Amino acid sequence: MASNACGHDWVVTITQQEEEPELDSALINAVAELGEFTRFAIYINKTFNIGLPARLLNKNTAIEELSEQEVLDLLAKVSRNKIRISRDCGVISTYVPIYYTGNVVGILVVESDKELTERCSMLAIYMLNIYANQLSLLHKSQQDPLTELLNRQTFDKKVIEIAANTAVEHDSKQCHWFLAMVDIDHFKRVNDNYGHVIGDEVILLVAQLLKNNFRIEDYVFRYGGEEFSVLFQASDELDARNALNRFRSCVAQYPFPQVGNLTVSSGFMPIYEFEMVASLVQKADQALYHSKNSGRNCVTAYSELDIQQSQPQDDSIELF
């Protein structure tokens, strides 16, 4: 680490990363360059939501992977800027906290033959928290400013990533990824009758309901206007339909301020193999159009459609 004695190189490297995988790699390389140990594991709760599990960042670690509960127990024991040390059969384990806005969101676990120097420990804390800050900035750049859901640009990248991985891993996975397109029914009437301020409030409330009805590991996006998209895992098509129907029912029962009751329509399809983003969205949209033409407030799977049919031509459908 002689060329990086003051830490300037890794600070620049970490703060220059604009993609999450590259940011993760920059942190792993920076930790490895500390030079006082070779065995380490980094666990990070990338959602920054307290109580949710922290995932292992460096999968090829030489340290045995901890269970979710073991990591949660460790996070509860460490505190901001406080390092814990344990000894067992000549091996010294050092636990360095990762924190963001005062909360511990992750931990660096180091196994070594001797205690880390104070300089090494402080550098580790510094680089871990620089990483957490940069991760937060990346997350904010991926968010829609009104709803704080993921934005359209992030949607394209995530679909490509999931589709590529699914093409390789499909046979070994018990759950499958699904793409759903969701649209607020008769939203133009809301803007016309109540104004755009109330319209924005409706979009925000629907976004919150959508996020609350899916799991933290699913991806919820504001696709554009009053249209949303969801990338989520389900065991099969029926399971996926049930998830979307739960959300549809939740919206239908929600008392929107000033507006009253509203409904949503959706269309969905599985992602079984690599396809262009535009093709996947078009198919999910076709299922969404079918829901609109079937009276709205319903869920349609792409598999239900006649593959030969063209997009419905119905002047009553709001274009988005």
3D architecture notes:
This protein is of the alpha+beta class and 320 residues long. It has two domains: 2-140, Beta-Lactamase; 152-304, Alpha-Beta Plaits. The protein is built from nine helices and ten strands. The strands form two sheets. The chain has a five-stranded antiparallel sheet with strand order 2-1-5-4-3, with helices on both faces. It has a five-stranded mixed sheet with strand order 7-8-6-9-10, with helices on both faces. Helix 1 packs antiparallel against helix 2, helix 1 (8-16) packs parallel to helix 4 and helix 2 (20-32) packs antiparallel against helix 4 (118-141). Residues 1-5 and 308-320 have low confidence and may be disordered. Its cofactor is Mg(2+). One of its GO terms (molecular function) is diguanylate cyclase activity. Its EC number is 2.7.7.65. Residues 175-304 form the GGDEF domain. It catalyses: 2 GTP = 3',3'-c-di-GMP + 2 diphosphate.
Topology of this protein?
Elements: H1 8-16, H2 20-32, E1 39-44, E2 55-56, H3 68-77, E3 84-88, E4 91-100, E5 103-112, H4 118-141, H5 152-169, E6 176-184, H6 187-194, H7 196-212, E7 219-224, E8 227-234, H8 237-253, E9 264-270, H9 277-293, E10 299-301
Helix pairs in contact: 1-2, 1-4, 2-4, 6-7
